[in-house]
Amino acid sequence: MKKIFYSMLGACALLFGACDDDDTTLIHVPGDEPAAATLSVSSESPLLNMAEDGKSGTIRFKSGGGELQLDLTTNRTNWEYDCDDESWLEVEADEFANTLSLRAARNKATVSPEATLVLTAGSGTDRATVTLRVSQNAAGSTPDLDVNEAQVVLPARGELTQEFEFSTNQDEWTFDLNCQWLFVEQTDHSLVLTAEPNADTTARTTQIVVAAGVAPNIVRDTVTVMQEAAAYVIPTPGSLGFDDEGGSKTISVACNYDWDFKVEGDWMTVTREGDVLTVAAGKNTGKDPLEGTIAITGGKDANTTTFALPVSQSGYDENNLVLIYDLPADKKEIVLPLAGTVDCTVDWGDGTKEETIVAAPTHTYAVAGEYVVTVSGEVTALASNSTKFTTEKKGYLVRVKQWGKTGLTSMDQAFYYCENLTRIPDDIAHSFDEVTTFAKAFAYCKKLEEIPAGLFKNAAKATSFKETFNGCETISVIPDGLLDGAVNVTTFYSTFAYCPKISKIPAGLFKNSTKVTDFSFVFQRTGLGSSSASNDVSSGLLTEIPAGLLDNCTSATVFTGAFGYLNIKSIPAGLFDHCTEATDMKSVFVSCENLETVPAGLFDKNTKAKDFYNIFNGCKSLKSVPADLFKYNTAVTNFRMTFASTGLVEVPAGLFDGKTKVTNFNGCFYKCENLTTVPADLFEDAIAATDMARMFIGCKALQSVPEDLFKNCVKVTTFANLFEECTSLSTVPAGLFAHNTNVTNFSTLFKNCKQFSAVPADLFAANEKAINFGSAFYGCTSLTAIPADLFAHNVKVTTGFASTFYGCTGLTSVPETLFSANVAVTSFNSTFYGCTGLTSLPAGLFDNNKKVTNFGKTFMGCKALAGESPYSTVDGAKVHLYERTTALGFSNVSTKTDCFDGCTGLSDYGDIPTAWK
Fold it and tell me: Is the bond preceding 216 in cis, omega lying within 30 degrees of 0?
């Protein structure tokens, strides 16, 4: 029998029906022929076995009969099938779904019927064909096993026994199972399955293998048994707490079955949308808290579970301290920041109340969620600095609802490093009337959103605001009038430091701060951007210091780092005019990289100022300063690093006039890379100066210095690193140090001065107290000669020639008398290390240096050396460095490693002991 189906017939009829006979034109486009016909056959039934080429296959029904469906895929609009024996095989086609259904009844005969099924797509020579051989087992001859629905589903709890039936043509059959939670009994034609209750919240499965027949003719099939998961309900959060004002909060419910809820507590309303519950509570005007429960039940039949979610709302009593905590998981412990004298009752917000006289009381919550904690009674201090306060436990506090009246006298470190604290209230109950300190009270509360304007309105007894908001990364506004009530404050040390989002300082912020003495670091690194760790001063948010900010701060003495690292371009004139008691101006504007101008007279009224250390260090855009900037600061003693790393092009004459008390100029112009000249009388009044070290280190544009620059600096003891890295400096005047007879340290004096080519012979002639020339000419690659008497007057040098000429690659020789006067020297470690241009050494170079114990690396890397190594003549015999002994009148050389390393051209190199090379 043959049947043909046209699956696109309806579409074709519509197409032709839409055409007008008179207007239709058929156009053939060469090369637009259809692709070759294709046909493929597939089935979800395992009875179909297709060959690899897809053109043929077999189907073998079991003797019990059955049904399978064939799915056809083709690129043609028509296909057909041809079956040569439908006496036992029923074939039914669906031309719309492109399927064939094959059915076979139970075979009671002892023979196996067969049929051939040919499927064709296309027509004529352009056809695609698939041939299927269909057969059925004979009754009783081949073992049959039909499990039909091969999966059994059992509940997690409840009715856990189920019978599973299957069919087989065999009398002998068995099963195999390896499972601890499933018990199986065998009957004549079925398996009886009994499971243990499943307490796990995930489903579990196992497999039973059923075998029928007798060897070697055995057939097997598999039954999958799945037991459902135990019902679970997981609400997030696991509890809810409302303050007295009420509000609305949501609960996300996770459940592996359908769920419902029931509310106990008519003071709240609960609505559901999807898997989210919205809980709303009105205002609680009473003093007593409200409590309730939302019972969330999920599951089916006997497999159900209920989560009783507690909900509470605190009452209102202005005398209570109210804190809100958010617990991310079950079984978490919190610590309350109660300190000082403690005698109070704590309502933990989960139905638990307790009286305590212990500081930093703790409580563990059974379930995760938000809890409102109410403290009533006496608590004289709030502090988060005991060992109980781990970072994790501090992180649970999210809000202070009200301060209450508990007798507070101290807020020192009240919420120090409570990084998740987001909100704090105004002082509406006079909570802070007796508080004397807010030191570090909110320091590093990185998520604190704002400072309430009335927070300190009653803080008249507070004296310390040290680091109060230091590191509060989210605060963006300092409210006007914030400190108006804090009239007795004495320190604002680092109060707003490291607050990156603050963009403005209120002009009247300190109008009542008449008793403040310390403004150290008050705004350091404030307003730099998104992170407290940011160093991007050039794009900071805080760009202006308001005029008159300090007008009423008449008691202020210390301003160390007060405005450091700000993105300011100018300083308001008269900023410090009323701060006449100021003594410490260290680092006031350090690293204000965009600062371009300094107003004349900025420090005129600060006649008591003693310290200007680092004050403009790092102000890269500052190219000039007024000549009379320090005119009236005659009490100053320290100008260390004052203009370090600034953009100064020149130093105005008279800048340090009258500064007769200054002792320290160390690094004053350190790395002023644009500085080209220095006025001759710059240090004319520096008669008390003792430290001139690092003065011009890194001044790469400096080409010369006046001969009388240090003429009056007679007390100076150190010029260490004075011109280090001055790469444009080629020489200095012979009398530069002629008046500095107390100098002991010239170490690293000209280190890495690449252009330095000539050393005046008498440069150190007046410095008889000098003991250290270590690295003095280190890296002076243009230096080609050393004066013979350079160190002739420096008889006190002992260890101070270490690395003195290290890396002076331009040197070709060393004068024989260079160290003749330095009879006390004990070390020449690395003195000529890396002098690759040295070709010879005078024999008597070290004749008078008999106390030397250290020749380590002295000539290391001097690979051009030739001739004999230095030696002294004793009783007519040569005594090389490596031959010195105490018996010959020399100190024992204890350090000699690498002394001649690489000096292979020396004529006596072969005689030099290994320990010396």
Answer: yes
The span from the CA of 525 to the CA of 546, in Å, is 17
pLDDT for 190? 85
| 614, 635, 690 from 664: Cα distances, Å | 12, 13, 6
Amino acid at 542: L
CATH class of 2-21+33-136: mainly beta
440-455+463-629: CATH topology? 3.80.10
Determine if the peptide bond prior to 237 is cis (ω within 30°): yes
DSSP 329: S
Q: 324-352 burial, b for 16+ CB within 10 Å, e for fewer?
A: bbbbeeeebebbbbbbbebebebbbbbee
Determine the Cα–Cα distance for residues 336 and 319; give it in Å rounded to an integer. 17
Domain 145-227 = CATH 3.30.420.480:
no
Asked if residue 290 lies in contact with residue 284, where contact means CB atoms within 8 angstroms, the answer is yes
Alpha helices in 130-193 (DSSP H): none
- Identify which of 75-89, 155-169, 771-785 has the greatest average pLDDT: 771-785
Bridge partners, 50 (sequence order): 57
Distance, in Å, from the CA atom of 139 to the CA atom of 201, rounded to the nearest integer, reads: 47
Query: How far is the C-alpha of 729 from the C-alpha of 706, rounded, in Å?
Result: 12
Fold topology of 237-313: Immunoglobulin-like (2.60.40)
Give the three-state DSSP class for 600. coil
Q: pTM of the entire structure?
A: 0.73
pLDDT of 15 over the 90 cut:
no
Residue keyed to tokens 């075998």: 211
Token pair in block for residue 227: 């037991």
C-beta separation of 164 from 190 below 8 A: yes
pLDDT digits 0-9 by tens, 390-422? 999 999 999 999 999 999 999 999 999 999 999
Q: 196-212 burial string, b = 16+ CB within 10 Å, else e?
A: eebeeeeebebebebbb
Those residues whose C-beta lies under 8 Å from the C-beta of residue 295, and which sit 6 or more positions away, are 261, 262, 263, 264, 306, 307, 308, 309
Task: State the Cα torsion 62-66-69-70 to the nearest 10°.
Answer: 30
Q: Specify the residue for token string 């210390």.
A: 558
Spatial separation of the C-alpha atoms in residues 90 and 84, rounded to whole Å: 11
What is the predicted pLDDT for the residue at 17? 38
The H helix count followed by the E strand count for the chain is 2, 36
Q: Token pair for residue 66?
A: 């059955």
Residues near 647 by beta carbon (within 8 Å), at least 6 away in sequence: 619, 620, 621, 622, 623, 672, 674
Strand partners, 41: 72
For residue 187, the number of C-alpha atoms closer than 13 Å in the C-beta half-sphere is: 11
Digit-coded pLDDT (tens) for 679-735: 999 999 999 999 999 999 999 999 999 999 999 999 999 999 999 999 999 999 999
Task: Using DSSP, state whether 909 is helix, strand or coil.
Answer: helix
Q: What is the mean pLDDT of residues 130-156?
A: 81
The dihedrals phi and psi of 539, each to the nearest 5 degrees, come to -120, 20
Q: Read off the DSSP letter of residue 361.
A: -
Find residue 133's DSSP bridge partners. 58, 116
Exposure class string for 793-812: b at 16+ Cβ within 10 A, else e: ebebbebbbbbbbbbbbbbe
Rg, C-alpha atoms of the chain: 48
